[in-house]
């Protein structure tokens, strides 16, 4: 049984008249009658009792009417869902992000995505390093990510979506930065909680220290913003962090502005050669957001 035959049957069953059903289907009555006969032959039963005055359903016809309507409705739903998925308005996107992006750009991105595509699910993966995010994209484990620009590999496409100044997190129990501001020279005798080599924050921390005429003394290397702040609170050292870290309320941490601190760029990245409608719509939505500049959150 073909779906077309089922639709022909439903038209006759609902109209109880071959002529009206044929006009509704925009085919001739003889064509319709032939399709119904073929369907009855395939099913091995009569579906209609035909007289010169009326057309009635047999018991088998009544059963097919109920089940046939459900089948057609289900096919219509599947067709609509497949179209939406292919058009990038429904489905699941796996989105990764560097730690501070969760506090700065991501809330606005998630909100805008929900308003524009309410049937699109965002599966969020946070507290990852940019090199890890790029590898996950290339390996197919993520669909898009917010990283610190510029991406390293040619396999990754990107667009700049924001900028974050850097600041310094220091132990609140010490005297450092009590007035809320520091210079790079003030950090000369401090030990640092640092991100791993190869990351943007590590590179910029080295740049800040060398610009002030000293080498950064690393006390401990961490991979997550939360771990860095935990170690700062414990007195292990100071940490150069993105300004978005200020929204994290952690006892024992003081955030200080750093004079002349560089900015980091945040970029939305995706895998080249896999630019699906789902990813394309997401990239377009994110880059169209008005707030492309990441402002410093208020200190807690």
UniProtKB/TrEMBL annotation:
It holds the Pfam family HTH_1. Coiled coil: none annotated. InterPro entries: LysR_HTH_N, LysR_subst-bd, WH-like_DNA-bd_sf, WH_DNA-bd_sf. Keywords: DNA-binding, Transcription, Transcription regulation. SUPFAM superfamilies: Periplasmic binding protein-like II, Winged helix' DNA-binding domain. One of its GO terms (cellular component) is protein-DNA complex. One of its GO terms (molecular function) is DNA binding. CDD domains: PBP2_LTTR_aromatics_like (cd08414). Residues 1-58 form the HTH lysR-type domain. PANTHER family: SMALL NEUTRAL PROTEASE REGULATORY PROTEIN, TRANSCRIPTIONAL DUAL REGULATOR HCAR-RELATED. Belongs to the LysR transcriptional regulatory family. This is LysR family transcriptional regulator. It comes from Kocuria coralli.
């Amino acid at each position: 049984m073909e779906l077309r035959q089922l639709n022909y049957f439903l038209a006759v069953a609902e109209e109880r008249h071959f002529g009206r059903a044929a006009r509704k289907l925009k085919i001739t009555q003889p064509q319709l009658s032939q399709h119904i006969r073929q369907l009855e032959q395939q099913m091995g039963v009569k579906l209609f009792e035909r007289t010169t005055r009326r057309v009635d359903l047999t018991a088998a016809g009544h059963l097919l009417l109920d089940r046939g309507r459900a089948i057609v409705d289900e096919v219509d739903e599947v067709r609509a869902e497949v179209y939406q998925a292919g058009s990038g308005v429904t489905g699941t996107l796996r989105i990764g992000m560097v730690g501070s992006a969760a506090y700065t750009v991501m809330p606005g991105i998630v909100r805008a995505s929900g308003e524009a595509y309410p049937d699109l699910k965002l599966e969020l993966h946070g507290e990852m390093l940019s090199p890890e995010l790029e590898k996950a994209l290339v390996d197919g484990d993520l669909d898009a990510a917010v990283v610190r620009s510029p991406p390293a590999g040619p396999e990754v496409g990107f667009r700049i979506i924001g900028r974050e100044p850097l600041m310094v997190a220091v132990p609140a129990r010490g005297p450092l930065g009590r007035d809320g501001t520091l210079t790079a020279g003030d950090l000369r005798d401090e030990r640092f909680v640092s991100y791993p080599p190869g990351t943007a924050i590590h590179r910029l921390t080295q740049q800040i220290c060398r610009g002030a005429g000293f080498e950064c003394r690393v006390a401990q290397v961490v991979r997550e913003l939360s771990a860095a702040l935990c170690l700062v609170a414990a007195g292990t050292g100071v940490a150069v962090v993105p300004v978005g870290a200020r929204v994290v309320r952690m006892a024992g941490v003081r955030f200080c502005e750093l004079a002349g601190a560089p900015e980091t760029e945040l970029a939305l990245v995706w895998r080249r050669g896999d630019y699906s409608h789902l990813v394309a719509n997401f990239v377009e939505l994110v880059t169209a957001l008005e707030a492309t500049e990441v402002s410093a959150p208020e200190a807690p």
